[in-house]
Amino acid sequence: MGMLRPLGIEGGKEFKPDAATVATLKQAATETHAWLVASLDTYITPWWPDSHWSVPAAPVGPKTDFRWQVADYFDVDSRAIGLANWFGPTAKLGSGSFYFGTYHDSGGRPLRGENTYRLHVPAKVPVRDFWAFTVYSKETSALFRNSPRATLDSLDKTMKQNADGSVDIYIGPKAPAGQESNWIYTPAGQGWFPWFRAYGPGKAIFDKTFKLPDIEAVN
User: Fold this and answer.
1) Is 101 in contact with 119 (CB distance < 8 Å)?
2) How far is Cα 28 from Cα 197, in angstroms, rounded to an integer?
3) Rounded distance, CA 44 to CA 137, Å?
4) Domain count along the chain
5) Cα torsion at 140, 39, 152, 116 (round to 10°)?
6) Which residues lie across from 101 on neighbouring strands?
7) Residue 6 belongs to some domain of the structure
8) Counting beta carbons within 10 angstroms of the beta carbon of residue 207, is it exposed (0 to 12), middle (13 to 18) or buried (19 or more)?
9) How far apart are CA 135 and CA 45, in angstroms?
10) Does a structural domain hold residue 9?
11) 190-201 per-position pLDDT tens digit
12) Which listed site, 57, 81, 87, 145, has its alpha carbon 20 to 30 Å from 206?
């Protein structure tokens, strides 16, 4: 609260900013949003050493009790990034959920809406309940407006499986021929990122004997 006092925001007092303060706050909001978007793929914790999948938060972020103080500093920046991108840690194996995120394809290139990608989900993902793959706008961290489908999950009976039980998910502006049931739309000209959620995560996720392949560019 002490950081807000110079702006005129105090407990028990009405906030009446003058025109100059309003203009400054609007500019600060614009700059802060741009910083948050640019920082999303820097304040992350890699999960597998040779993979682009990560825990979508800074190391201080995934705390089940969300403490705001670390050993040597008050980590405001990574908290802001973590809350902008949100991460739901699980308290114990087999309950809750665990999320993986990425901002790059297998070649290290940023994920872009105009490109088509494929994610190969191995058979028998170690979850008690189900897994889900959801796509978000990097600009807003929200779903893409008017998308025919924002997510695919292992409970979806229309999603095609391979002979071995694995699934290939396609992401891009247009579904590859014959893959409409396994496709998620992304608009050209926009960046995006996914969350792969494990509901009721099993031991193989946490000891890393299970590995989710990187997203591959198809074109």
Assistant:
1) no
2) 33
3) 17
4) 1
5) 90
6) 54, 195
7) no
8) exposed
9) 19
10) no
11) 999 999 999 999
12) 81
Identify whether the C-beta of residue 107 lies closer than 8 Å to the C-beta of residue 217: yes
Residue that is written with structure tokens 């198809």 in the block = 218
The pair of structure tokens assigned to 103 is 């901002």
Question: For residue 126, what are the domain limits?
Answer: 17-156+164-217
Residue 180 forms part of a structural domain: yes
2 inside domain: no
SS3 86: coil
pTM of the model: 0.75
Q: Which two tokens stand for residue 153?
A: 């999950």
What is the domain-level CATH number for residue 102?
2.60.120.600
- CA angle, corner 79, sides to 211 and 111, nearest 5? 45
Residue 216 near residue 105 (C-beta atoms within 8 A): yes
pLDDT tens per residue, range 149-160: 999 999 999 999
28-67: pLDDT as tens digits: 999 988 887 777 777 677 889 899 998 765 554 444 444 4
Which tokens in the block code for residue 134?
Answer: 């959801």
Q: What is the pLDDT of residue 36?
A: 78
